[in-house]
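hey so i finaly got around to running the thing on 3D-(3,5/4)-trihydroxycyclohexane-1,2-dione hydrolase from Paraburkholderia caballeronis. pasting the sequence first so u can double check i didnt mess up the copy paste, my clipboard has been acting weird all day
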Amino acid sequence: MNQRIVTGAHDTAATPASAAAHGHTVRLTAAQALVRYLAAQRVASQDGTSRTEPLFGGVFAIFGHGNVAAMGEALYQHRHELPTLRAHNEQAMAHSAIAYAKAHFRRRMMAVTTSIGPGATNLVTAAALAHVNRLPVLLLPGDVFVSRAPDPVLQQVEDFHDGGLSANDALKPVSRYFDRIVHPAQLLTALPRALRVLTDAALCGPVTLALPQDVQAAAFDYPVEFFAPRLVAFHAPAPSRVEIDAALAQLQRAKRPLIVAGGGVLYARASETLQALAASRGIPVAETQAGKGSLAWDDPLNVGALGVTGSTAANALARGADCVLAVGTRLQDFTTGSNSLFPHARVIGVNANGFDALKHGGLAVQADARLALAALAGELGGWHADANWTARALALANEWRTTVERVTHAPQQPDVLPYDADVIGAVQRSGSRSADDDIVVCAAGTLPAELHKLWRAGRPGAYHVEYGYSCMGYEIAGGLGAKLARPEREVIVMVGDGSYLMMNSEIATSVMLGAKLIVVVLDNRGYGCINRLQQACGGAPFNNLFDDCAQGPLGAPRIDFAGHAQALGAQAEHVANVAELETAMQRARAATRTCVIVIDTDPARTTDDGGWWWEVAVPEVSPRPAVRDARALYDAQLAARGRGEPLPGVAAPGDNSDET
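ok and heres what it spat out for the 3d tokens, dont ask me to read them lol
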């Protein structure tokens, strides 16, 4: 690629290297400068060698009039250093980019470019997902003309009170950093700021750079050194002496400690440090959705999932703990049982983000998880959890592993539909190395609850479930991103029929890119999860399962998911039972293109073992007795939570004695 290099107003034939040495400039459009800067960012390889690789794995793009001319041309020029990938839905391609970053533990990422209008606003849901989950993605939506000469342009959203607003302003609340580039020179400050947010453990999240169409195409003389290859340093805070001392004092007073491992453990690559601390001090470890896989499923002190979707072991220990060391977790309501699971315990919050470290009244240690855990481990002296507490944790953890084995290997009854646990067991049995090598991807509905309890994650990254935003439609797009990040791994997407119908277009993208997925569709003919919640709150079955929805004279459709997936280019089949599913999974593992397997499941059944209370407000007034009864129980539960007592109607999580 030949580009004119200039010094002031004078052309020169100098090479970029010699130009940089003499303060030379290169004339580029804003779009060309942006793409060239992204392509120049490097990161140390994660394989332990001295290699480097691009920080940005590529750019997902759907072109429209707001980005095809300038951004399209710039991406074409750099297509070999910074691949451009075409998708079929803007929200979906942003989900794929986010999943790519998650699968790389935030050490690599992708950018996304769209046109203005619907292309830009389709990014809002994905941006919110990245914001909630603290995951990096660079959003580059087109914008209206800064000159306003052709105002209003096609797809422009006009505000009657503020001429400076565009559709992209909807992205402000869900961006960690937002900038509208109204002059090409602004990239000199905006891009380094954006990169800092994307690579900072405390700030990490979505960045939006809105790109007006005329500015994208405008040229500017940029310093050549701005585009010099740069090895990116990821920033994470070291623990302060004062905070470590306070945490040590709190922990050393504890007899019954529990570690809660969140996503920050994985992003800090702190699994080995966590395992060493737990083993040496006899501390049980419970896992959040984002933190599952921090310890191998068969680690003796891994007591499983915590909270609303938790194991009997983890929840029993949470009820008995006197100190909770919450590492890299937001402590959202599914983890804390809506603040009812361990209100009696002292919480030490270890988190790179101080906002998160303070939650649940925590004693905050604002620091990288690995650095903080190492500091604590090195200064605990002879302290150890109470021996009886550790023994109890080991016993409960072993009992839970036995429960998982029983639940996922239950014999199938003839003429009885399987449910999620049956499917999970069949999927994991289908591959001899599945516990270590598979990556399971999921998001909203019942499946995340069942997977959190039952999936056996053999190593960090084997469990990829988006439950911070619980976003229906993430599953298949997220699977694509995970596969692009980890092409050597088998990526298994588990998705309900509701989420499949909401967003499935990236099956076609996976086929086009040769990024093979195995997609298991559990068809329960509606929104089974929310249907059960509706009835648990006293509501009548209504507007969730197809049978309970308003229908025309032809009734609800019987959807051929396998036929639909075949039409998108995938191999697909419908299986009649769990045995056929196992056989189909083996065929899918041997295949070279995306495979979709569909199985009918029961919308009513869930795993009885484990779980905890989740606060969902029930109407105070209703003409229906079932709602009034549900409200009475809810009021009793609120009162009990306020007193720190067992909750009426909530099964005790196994042995919840405080005795050690």
